[in-house]
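Please fill in the sequence for the structure shown.

STRUCTURE ENCODING:
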């Protein structure tokens, strides 16, 4: 943190913060700061706040110095199942802000086609944080179901996001007790992507649609015409009959 402050400077500035807050918990003494730097103590939330203000760093950045990564909270919350139904994410009475995508980005992304999320935003340089803040593209693969892709509708509706386990690339052949237990795969094609049930027979891959979708079974050669990217392990989708414009979705829990 290169702001050229001595421990005495930090002590003085933290005292000012403590006085403004009428709470001495914000105060960081010279000796106490030295102990923090030596790893002997972990500061309280109040002292972390003072450090954030004094060193001109975001609060989550200060927390990261002590091994706490705010970006992991959403994913870890969703990975810990609770027995009772409950709300997650934003407070019920506080709507999350929507984001507007530029005309250039809208033109470069074909939302009507099924695609990998990382490739959808490749030309933009990075994935919008507000749009995908519950996803972790560095650790998982995510796919987007195009608004014109009804292959597994209504099991997976157009406009949905799916999480993909790239380690599960072998098509399972078995009898499943119900449609929810049947593996779903994300497949790369010569001219795009598909998200479907799959059957593999003598290097012929069959993309099997949901019966109610009225889509046709597609037969492809492996690996010439198709390659399994991975198995779909989680879905984020709306259940309304008419999904809104997907560019306005902001909160997409991965699990």
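FILLED IN BY: designer on duty
SEQUENCE:
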């Amino acid at each position: 943190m290169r702001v050229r402050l001595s421990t005495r400077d930090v002590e003085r500035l933290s005292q000012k913060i403590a006085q403004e807050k009428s709470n001495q918990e914000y105060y960081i003494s010279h000796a106490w700061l030295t102990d923090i730097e030596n790893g002997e103590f972990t500061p309280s939330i109040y002292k972390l706040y003072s450090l954030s203000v004094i060193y001109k760093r975001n609060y989550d950045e200060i927390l990261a110095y002590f091994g706490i990564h705010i970006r992991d909270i959403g994913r870890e919350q969703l990975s810990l199942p609770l027995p009772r139904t409950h709300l997650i994410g934003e407070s019920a009475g506080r709507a999350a802000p929507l984001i507007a995508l530029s005309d250039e980005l809208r033109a470069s992304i074909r939302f009507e086609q099924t695609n990998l999320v990382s490739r959808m935003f490749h030309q933009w340089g990075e994935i919008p944080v507000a749009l995908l803040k519950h996803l972790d593209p560095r650790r998982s693969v995510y796919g987007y179901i195009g608004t014109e892709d009804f292959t597994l509708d209504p099991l997976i509706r157009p406009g949905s996001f799916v999480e993909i386990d790239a380690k599960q690339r072998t098509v399972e052949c078995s009898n499943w007790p119900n449609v929810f237990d049947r593996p779903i795969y994300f497949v790369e094609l010569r001219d795009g992507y598909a998200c479907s049930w799959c059957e593999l027979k003598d290097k012929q891959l069959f993309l099997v649609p949901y019966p109610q979708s009225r889509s046709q079974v597609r037969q492809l050669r492996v690996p010439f015409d198709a390659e399994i990217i991975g198995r779909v392990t989680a879905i984020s989708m709306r259940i309304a009959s008419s999904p809104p414009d997907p560019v306005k979705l902001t909160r997409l829990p991965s699990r």
